[in-house]
Write a structure and sequence with these properties.
The structure is a single chain. The protein is of the alpha+beta class and 272 residues long. The protein is 17% helix and 28% strand. A six-stranded antiparallel β-sheet has the order 2-1-4-9-6-7, with no helix packed on it. The chain has a four-stranded antiparallel β-sheet with strand order 3-10-5-8, with no helix packed on it.
Length: 272
């Protein structure tokens, strides 16, 4: 089953804040529909939201070159965006910041130079050497009409505590977060280099979220590669996160009330 929910198409700030609620609502709706089974995808998949950043944006087209692992802070900001680190070693200052110090390359509500340009999903391992507008995988594209930015979100579940290993490469910026905590930072304008990375802490058994921010900021090349190296870990779009027991009980209760209502309706019709 494939869901396409228009209410989930919101700016990144509100979508990330309400990702679990949105996923819960969609999955619960599926649960309440008789004879419909919802199963997790067998391959790792991330939801994708794409944006085109105008060439007139002051952070794009002129900040070359170098890789800076300290461009953003270790946690996402209040609007679900990477937070700029003023103490970064990057000599080029970032101009696109909101009042919370978050970088706004992925949010049209904060940045008038940003336009939503598409959505979909990607399967892992992912390797695209033509990350051009409107939605990447565009070998004939270029940056003449703007630069591509993207946010990729998913979820995974662990049966036991463990560290999880990924491989990430990008031209240019890429910031990977697990449960809102920074795992890898490839900040700055630079060539594509893929390196293995491991979560700095052991992750607890249970459900976890993953968010990958990407943008191309310079006219030379545009690439993104991402894969999961740990065995037995499957990433799925946020909707497939298992719901808490209370939600399932709520859904079961609604089903029970619906069944009682149907029986009463049939009984009343039969008595007439």
């Amino acid at each position: 089953m494939k869901f396409q929910v228009s209410s989930c198409r919101r700016p990144i700030a509100s979508r990330l804040r309400g990702a679990w609620l949105c996923a819960s609502a969609v999955c619960l709706t599926a649960v309440l529909m008789p004879a419909v089974a919802v199963q997790a995808a067998p391959v790792s998949t991330l939801s994708a939201s794409y944006y085109t950043v105008s060439s007139a944006d002051p952070d794009f087209g002129n900040q070359c070159c170098g890789t800076f692992t300290d461009l953003v802070k270790n946690t996402l900001g209040p609007d679900g965006l990477p937070v700029y680190n003023p103490a970064t070693s990057d000599p080029f200052p970032i101009h696109d910041l909101n009042g919370s110090g978050e970088i706004t390359w992925w949010d049209p509500t904060f940045n008038s130079n940003v336009t939503a340009s598409g959505s979909g999903s990607i399967s892992l391992p992912f390797n695209d050497g033509a990350m051009y507008p409107p939605a990447g995988q565009n070998p004939g594209g270029n940056d003449s009409n703007g630069y591509l930015a993207g946010v990729f979100t998913g979820a995974f579940s662990l049966n036991a505590p463990q560290q999880v290993q990924f491989a990430l490469g990008a031209d240019d910026d890429a910031f990977l977060y697990v449960d809102g905590m920074l795992v890898d930072s490839l900040g700055g304008v630079h060539a594509d280099t893929q390196l293995p990375i491991t979560t700095p802490q052991t992750l607890a058994a249970g459900n976890h979220t993953i968010t990958l921010f990407y943008d191309d900021r310079y006219p030379t090349q545009a690439a993104l590669s991402f894969s999961i190296l740990s065995q037995g870990v499957t990433i799925t779009p946020p909707c497939t996160v298992p719901l808490p027991p209370a939600v399932w009980f709520f859904g079961s209760g609604l089903l029970g009330l619906a069944a009682i209502g149907r029986r009463r309706a049939f009984g009343e019709r039969g008595a007439k």
